[in-house]
Design brief:
single chain, alpha+beta, 4 helices, 25% helix, binds coenzyme A
Length: 183
C-alpha cells in the first residue's frame, strides 16, 4: 500500500461526496465492516457542504490516493482546528478497501497534519452511540470516550434521514503522541 495524502480543492468536492455517501449510507456501504445504513438514509453530505469545508480557513479536507488521478479517492477526512484540539469528521474509506489498514493510516496522516502544521495536542471525533463496533475500533486506535454527548441534528436533511429517534453523538479524544501504528 503506497498511499499519498493531499489537501482537497474545490474541484474535488464531487468525488468527496461520492466517496462519503458510499461509505456511510446506502447499499454500497454494506460492503464495508461498519455502516450507518441501518440507522440513517438520505445523504451524508453534498457538494455545497464539502466546498464550504474546503474553503474554510479553519480546517482542511484531506484525501488519500494510491494510483493515478483517474483511479479515484481511497479515503478522506475533514480536520478542523479548534484551539489546541483538532476535530476529525467526514472520515471515510472506500467500502471495497476497508479492513485493510487504510483507515488507521488515514488517522495517522490526519494526526500528523494536526500536530506538525497546527501544533494540536489532541484529536477529537464524535461517533453515533449506536455504533459500538466503531467505538471499539477508535478505542483500539487510542481514543477514549470523554463523557460529552451531543444531540443528532434531527430536522436537517442535509445530514440524513434518521430511521430512529434516539440517535446521539458521543465525543472521543486521543492525546497526540500516543501510538497509532498497526498493532
Ligand atoms: C471507519 C473507517 C474509516 C475505518 O477504515 P478502515 O480502512 O476499514 O480501517 P482499518 O482497515 O485501518 O481498520 C479496520 C478495523 O476494523 C476491524 N474489523 C474488520 N472487520 C471487522 C468486523 N466485521 N467487525 C468489527 N471490526 C472489524 C479490523 O480488525 C481493524 O481493526 P484493527 O485496526 O484494530 O486491526 C471505514 O470503515 C469507513 O469508512 N466506515 C464508514 C464511514 C464511517 O463510519 N466513518 C466514521 C464515522 S465516525
Amino acid at each position: 500500500m503506497t498511499l499519498t495524502v493531499r489537501i482537497a480543492a474545490d474541484a474535488d468536492a464531487g468525488a468527496v461526496v461520492a466517496l462519503v455517501d458510499s461509505a456511510y449510507r446506502g447499499e454500497e456501504s454494506r460492503q464495508g465492516w461498519t455502516t450507518e445504513a441501518d440507522l440513517l438514509g438520505g445523504q451524508r453530505t453534498d457538494v455545497e457542504m464539502v466546498r464550504d469545508l474546503v474553503r474554510d480557513p479553519a480546517g482542511v479536507v484531506l484525501l488519500a490516493e494510491d494510483g493515478p488521478p483517474s483511479a479515484g479517492l481511497v479515503a478522506c477526512c475533514h480536520l478542523e482546528r479548534r484551539a489546541r484540539t483538532a476535530r476529525l469528521g467526514m472520515f471515510a474509506v472506500r467500502p471495497g478497501r476497508q479492513g485493510g489498514g487504510v483507515g488507521r493510516w488515514m488517522l495517522g496522516a490526519a494526526t500528523d497534519h494536526a500536530t506538525e502544521v497546527w501544533g494540536a495536542e489532541r484529536v477529537e471525533i464524535t461517533v453515533l452511540a449506536q455504533r459500538t463496533e466503531l467505538i471499539a475500533w477508535y478505542e483500539r486506535c487510542g481514543f477514549t470516550l470523554t463523557g460529552e454527548r451531543h444531540p443528532f441534528p434531527y430536522g436537517d436533511p442535509r445530514y440524513g434521514l434518521p430511521h430512529r429517534d434516539d440517535l446521539e453523538l458521543l465525543a472521543m479524544a486521543r492525546p497526540v503522541g500516543s501510538n497509532i501504528a498497526p498493532g
